Amino acid sequence: MNSNKANRGLTTKPKTRILRLDASANTGASDSSKLADKLIRQIRLRGQEIEVRSRDLNLAAPFIDGSWIEANFTAADDRSATQNQVLGLSDRLIGELNWADHIVLATPMYNFGVPATLKAWIDQVCRAGVTFRYTENGPEGLLAGKSADIVITTGGAPLGSAVDFVSGYLKQVFAFIGIDATNIFGADQMNRDAQSSIARAQAQIDQTYPAAATQEMA
Ligand SMILES: Cc1cc2nc3c(=O)[nH]c(=O)nc-3n(C[C@H](O)[C@H](O)[C@H](O)COP(=O)(O)O)c2cc1C
Question: N or C: which end of the chain has fewer CB within 10 A?
Answer without folding.
Answer: N
